Amino acid sequence: MVETVMPEHWKATFLNESETPETLVFFGVDEMPVPPGHVKIRIDSIPLCDIDTPPQPHSCDMPDVGGVSEIQCLGTVEAIDESDGTDSGVSVGDEVIGFGQIALASHVICDSNLVVPNTQDIDCNSLIPLVTAYYSLLQRARISWNETLLISSDNVPLCLAALEIAKYIKCQVICIAGDSQNEGFLKERVGVQHVIQISNSSFLESVFGWTNNNGVDVVFLSSPDPNYEKILSVLSSEGRLCEVSRETVLQIAGITSNSLMGNKVFHSCQIGVLLQHQPERFRSIVLQVMALLKQHQIDPVPQIECPIEDFLTSYDVKKANQAEQVVLEIPHEFNPLDHVDLQPSPEQFSAKASYVVTAAHTSLALSLARWLYQLGARSIVLISHDEFPTSSKQTQKVLRNHDVEVREYIANLGDEGAAKEVLDDIRSTSAKPIKGVFHLDTVIYDDNPFEIDARRASKIISATVARARNLHTLTKRDNLDIFVMLSSINSVVGIPSKPLFSAVSAYLDALAEERNAQGLPALSVQVGPIRCMGTIFGVSETESYQMHFDRRQKLIHVDDFLQALGLLLRKPDQPVVCFGAQDQEWGAMKQMCVNSAIKFRHLAKGSKVTKEKPRSATMNKRQIEHVIKSKMAELLCMRKEAIDVKRPMTAYGVDSLIAMEIANWASDPTQLGLVISQFDILDGMTIATLLNKAISS
Fold first, then answer.
1. Which candidate, 113, 14, 99, places its Cα nearest to that of 65?
2. Per-residue pLDDT tens for 279-309?
3. How many Å apart are CA 623 and CA 614, to the nearest integer?
């Protein structure tokens, strides 16, 4: 390995959504200035907790680009800024515990309210599970000694932490085991008397028998469970349900109202939310838990220490271990270059560039603006065709407090003159060039196809097509790195009630193809309704109202959408049109596809698309390679120049449907005339292998 200078600051992150050890890479990170009221910590260890960590721009200044995301770290103070009058209570060189959105990195910057001294007389690595259980059971549920607690948790450290709090309270405990191995562990190694699997046919009879037919008083739940209603059925009248994960909070929206009848109470106990919105209260709970540990009234959760040199093993242990919490140790002398090649910085957004966000009056745009900041952007331009709401003013205030340059404009981008005036003003008033555009603007109506007239059609087209076209033409001089548009799944399925919306969505997809053909950056994301800050983005007002009361609706959460968008922007070989819906029935989708839908035209047209291509028998190797790459580029909506013949086709997003299309095309005697199946492609066949087969035949 070529000797390279060790970076002072580094971070590890996953390159894609698979989050496997093979995709974990290290990056160098720029110098990290310390904002007023914050503390810079050199990380010594990170306990891996698997607990939700929502974005917290006020408590962590290190951009979130994926990878390990925890809430707690142990480390040494390197710098403090108390210029705002804040007394952090710590000094440079002190060993401390920091809380926030903690990445697997060399350093982190935390709010001074979320830093406490690390007393050496207690084990502080298991604080987060214990704090979660303490907050849920004592402060929210207020459980007492004469009550019964039911614990259902796939997260072993959380389960053991809840048992410690139960032992402190001296209440009766019942545990739900996920399998026989977990049941044996809880009975034999932990000593829990009442343990049962929920799949056991005698589950209800056993629980009611152990509680004298009263049911349990408190349920501690940490992960989604398909037997949610069965668990709630053993909750007594005036019982309390404590839930600690965001996924389970969302799951409760789908349960029947009868499950929470009988004066039962639901408590959302997400510790990350408490840390974000009430840092002083979070700190107080941490100190109370540390006091209980020091007094030996509760014990720390069992741990296994794993040096970062074995970080690949740590992820295997994290998934396979049944008893201990994994603590990742990072010695100060650790050099990533001794183990892996250092990659270029993964940040999509430069602090030296400006990023334009349209539809800035919407909740999605505000979430995206905060997300841009978290990934490194320090100059954000918000453009709206309507008045900015109070929530926008609040978001702008938070961003400006973190030294982000925020500018706002109210303009109709559908008017070319108005759009040019805004863009010229951005260029003239900021030293940071425009490098990215996020076009979220759209107008959605409940259209009656029989009532659409020219005026209505013009209004809808102007609201989307003209705005997108003006941004496209007027930013060509800016040498953009990013140009993102939000299309819709309507461009694929063609919903009759929204013919114009389907048309303009298809236009945005086509515009992305046009920009790509011109060598310009482009990404059109076909999304469904997005749940964002109490609203639903991407539907009309009538549909939004209906969806709030329709429990069967599967909506994309804004956090999931932004995470997916970040992954798409990091892929150099991304398709220019991407489908953003979830849990689709692809068989039904194939039958409903509009023939001209860009991303999925291979599903609608089939092999007829390429009937006009020449026979491989009359072509040389270079011509056959050109034909195969052209077919791949057509199916995946990407440039054929971006396709590497040595990479597996699955690396470009080829799924079973596309694999079948390729196999049918390659088997067609008027094309390559080969005998291959979709399973050959899904097993990792490369274009080079397919090319060699065609030549040899």
1. 14
2. 889 999 999 999 999 999 999 988 888 888 7
3. 10
CA 435 to CA 478: how far, in whole Å?
7
**Contact of 216 with 234, CB cutoff 8 Å:** yes
**Spatial contact of 489 and 597, defined as CB atoms under 8 Å apart:** no
CA angle 506, 507, 509 (to 5 degrees): 65
Residue 205 half-sphere exposure toward CB, CA atoms < 13 A: 4
Average of pLDDT values for 86-107?
86
Question: Do 356 and 426 touch, CB atoms closer than 8 A?
Answer: yes
Report the pLDDT averaged over residues 17-40. 71
Residues in the chain: 697
Q: Give the span between the Cα atoms of 597 and 481, in whole angstroms.
A: 26
Q: How many CB atoms lie within 10 A of CB 686?
A: 17
Q: Which of 271, 242, 235, 260 is nearest to 70 (CA)?
A: 271
577 or 183: which leads in pLDDT: 183
Angle, helices 416-429 vs 467-474, to 10°: value is 40
Residue 627 CA neighbour count, 13 Å, CB half: 26
* DSSP structure string for 344-395: PP--SS-TTSEEEEE-TTSHHHHHHHHHHHHTT--EEEEEESSPPPHHHHHH
Higher pLDDT, 406 or 572: 406
| Structure-block tokens of residue 652 | 């470009």
Residue 121 neighbours by CB distance under 10 Å: 7
Judge contact between 264 and 237, C-beta under 8 A: yes
Pairing of strands 69-81, 24-28: unpaired
- Segment 302-320 mean pLDDT: 67
Identify whether the C-beta of residue 638 lies closer than 8 Å to the C-beta of residue 580.
Answer: no
Average pLDDT over every residue of 435-445: 79
Angstrom distance (rounded) from CA 22 to CA 154: 25
Question: For position 342, what pLDDT does the model report?
Answer: 52
Structure tokens at 237: 């009248």
Which of 493, 471, 490 lies closest to 482, judged by CA? 471
The residues with which 486 forms a beta bridge, in sequence order, are 525
Contact 40, 20 (CB under 8 A): no
Share of the chain above pLDDT 90, in %: 25
Sheet holding 530-532, edge to edge: 535-537, 530-532, 556-557
User: Is the predicted pLDDT of residue 498 greater than 90, yes or no?
Assistant: no
597 within 8 A of 575, measured Cβ to Cβ: no
CB 361 within 8 A of CB 382: no
Q: What is the DSSP letter of 124?
A: -
Find the distance separating the first CA and the last CA of the chain, reported in whole Å: 42
Which three-class secondary structure state does DSSP give residue 45?
strand
Choose among 654, 656, 499, 520: nearest CA to 576: 520
Look-up: residue for tokens 């705002």?
84
Whether the Cβ atoms of residue 130 and residue 165 lie closer than 8 Å to each other: yes
Q: Which element (helix H / strand E) includes 100?
A: strand 95-103
Burial class (CB in 10 A: 0-12, 13-18, 19+), 659: buried
Q: Which residue bears the tokens 């072993």?
A: 156
| Average pLDDT estimate for 416-441 | 92
45: CB partners within 8 A, 6+ apart? 73, 74, 75, 125, 305, 327, 328, 329, 330
Question: What is the identity of the amino acid at 433?
Answer: P
Question: Which pLDDT score, from 0 to 100, does residue 592 have?
Answer: 39
Residue 343: predicted pLDDT: 53
Domains, the chain, ordered by start: 10-123+301-343 (3.90.180.10), 128-276 (3.40.50.720), 354-599 (3.40.50.720), 606-696 (1.10.1200.10)
Burial 588-619 (b: 16+ CB within 10 A, else e): ebeeebbeebbbbbbbbeebebbeebeebeeb
| Cα(642)–Cα(517) distance, integer angstroms | 13
